[in-house]
Write the structure tokens for this entry.
Amino acid sequence: MSNPVSNTETNRYFIGSLAKGLELLGAFSNSSQPLSLKDLTERTGWNKGAAFRYAFTLQQLGYLHQDPITKRYRPGVKVLSLGFAYLSGLGLTERAQSYLEELFQETGQPAHLAILDGSDIVYVSRRADRRLTSINVYVGARLPAYCTSMGKVLLAYLPREEARRRLASAPLTQHTPNTITNLDRLEAELERIRRQGYSSTDQELELGARSIAAPIRDASGEVIAAVNVSTLVVRVTREELFERFLPRLLSAANGISSVLGYIPGAQELAV
């Protein structure tokens, strides 16, 4: 059966200015820092005038915020509201919160929920006590996927070529002596994570911090998020992380997946 929308119709319906506005917003996807107008021109390949006009329009609409002193731009509250509307539609954060609370109470350590966006993870829910962690994360915070436990889980369950593409597009910064920055080593690590069903990091992003993460699946069996327990090396040994925390983490991940409609083995039976 032929595509009901021809290329001619696609070109007729396509709104170029809307696409360019979304492209400018996309320039922020791999940056945790505000961007200057020069940054935007470099990321989009546009001239300064075009970048300014689109940035100004998005700022007026509330999708970008410009710092009055530095003149740098960052995503505005309307972008966040769109993202949280998407998450609300999934029912992910609401359904996961009780499991994060239980995980926090059982382990005494911070528990987080994150999704993958480009080569970063974005925190969408958490249950934590600031005294228990050295990394200041909050809902909406972004961290690089390649050196975080939740990021590695989410990369591991992507198609292999897609995971490689995302890793290749990101700067693999050596944050600590433990950070893996070699692409082949990272791919081998992702393969190991797929086999064992969970991920861990030990002082890869920041010295003194370690964590363990597991995947969350939706009704189709697709991995859409990850949940983790993070801690400090002075509080929890590696042995305790795996022996005491891992079973509780996997139980929480399975529970969240279950309320999202995931039934283990159902996809194989349907084939």
User: Anything to note?
Assistant: The first helix runs from residue 7 to 13.
